[in-house]
């Protein structure tokens, strides 16, 4: 039987949520790679379109863009050199969700996740089953590995060495010694210098990426999407947080929405997006709610900064009343000795802009 005390605290949360006045403004936020996605989503909101149609159309830009190597076409592949994509969607007004994971050969996985939501009695399809479902709906199958991503994968593979510095993929032990850059040039004489520099950087610092995009319209309706190629060089079949409802994405029409990018394994362990929405339901601001989820991740490592320094993770939250935040574990990442501050994209009607994320820990360049 539910105790009076528990019932009271549950109803207090409901009261806090219903006390939130729905915003009457269109608003879109996303991870930092979503400036164009926010702009496209905003156009659709302004023309009266649905919030989920808006965010899915927005992130399709990243899914098509070979230069975004963390999403869709041109995404960095798994350790076998195969691109495997994950995505999820949630539609606030109908309180429905859909997701797909480990999908090969289909670039618009956010549309596919939406179709799972709309056209099946299920929430999640994975692997070959998801591809068969896509085929049934006429999705085009294509090789998602671009030449640039293939080069980065090969360079990563060839840079793996045993304790004696030996690798089966390099030429024989009798090859003359050379510096990494000269060695790469010799191995891939046709590749442009700029691609080699990119490939070496990606091999040494496997990137995280993904796009999460959340929208609120003038009627107070909320939806969200997360789409990704996952962690570069992952094991085949590895699924991250992005397609997990409650981790990479969560929307509750009564409260708001949250999503994540970065190391998914950490997010899954704290059910980050759901935790953030629940925090907001209990009265936290989006900023407080995200920082609390980050503290839970830190707590999983006993707040040991030396271990936490090895990864980063970002959360995005949009409350029904139009308050929003982007938050990250670290203030930024170090690239070529420079601190790159963590930011997120916002569009509130005029044009897309980047805003700084709040953060839990600070690293110095
Ligand atoms: N969160 C994604 C995953 O773990 C990766 C990322 O955002 O970079 O699959």
Question: What's the structural blueprint in terms of helices and strands?
Answer:
Elements: H1 4-18, E1 27-31, H2 35-46, H3 51-64, E2 85-91, E3 96-103, H4 109-119, E4 124-126, H5 127-136, H6 147-159, H7 180-187, H8 193-204, E5 211-216, E6 222-228, E7 249-252, E8 256-262, H9 264-270, H10 272-281, H11 286-299, H12 305-308, E9 313-319, E10 324-330, E11 332-335, E12 338-341, E13 343-347, E14 353-356, E15 358-361
Parallel strand pairs: 3-4, 10-15
Antiparallel strand pairs: 1-5, 1-13, 2-3, 2-6, 5-6, 7-8, 8-9, 9-10, 11-12, 13-14
Helix pairs in contact: 2-3, 3-4, 6-8, 10-11
Bound molecules: aspartic acid.
The site of aspartic acid has 14 residues, from strand 8.
Overview of this structure, please?
- The protein has 365 residues and is α+β, with helices and mostly antiparallel strands.
- It has 2 domains: 19-143 and 207-361, Glutamine Phosphoribosylpyrophosphate, subunit 1, domain 1 (4-Layer Sandwich); 147-192, no CATH class.
- 36% of the residues lie in helices and 22% in strands.
- It has 12 helices and 15 strands.
- The protein has helices at residues 4-18, 35-46, 51-64, 109-119, 127-136, 147-159, 180-187, 193-204, 264-270, 272-281, 286-299, 305-308, and strands at residues 27-31, 85-91, 96-103, 124-126, 211-216, 222-228, 249-252, 256-262, 313-319, 324-330, 332-335, 338-341, 343-347, 353-356, 358-361.
- It has an 8-stranded mixed beta sheet. Strands 7-8-9-10-15 form a 5-stranded mixed beta sheet, covered by helices on one side. It has a two-stranded antiparallel ribbon with strand order 11-12.
- Strand 11 and strand 12 form a beta hairpin.
- Helix 3 (51-64) packs antiparallel against helix 4 and helix 10 (272-281) packs across helix 11 (286-299).
- It is globular.
- The model has no long low-confidence stretch (mean pLDDT 90).
- The protein binds aspartic acid.
- Aspartic acid binds next to strand 8.
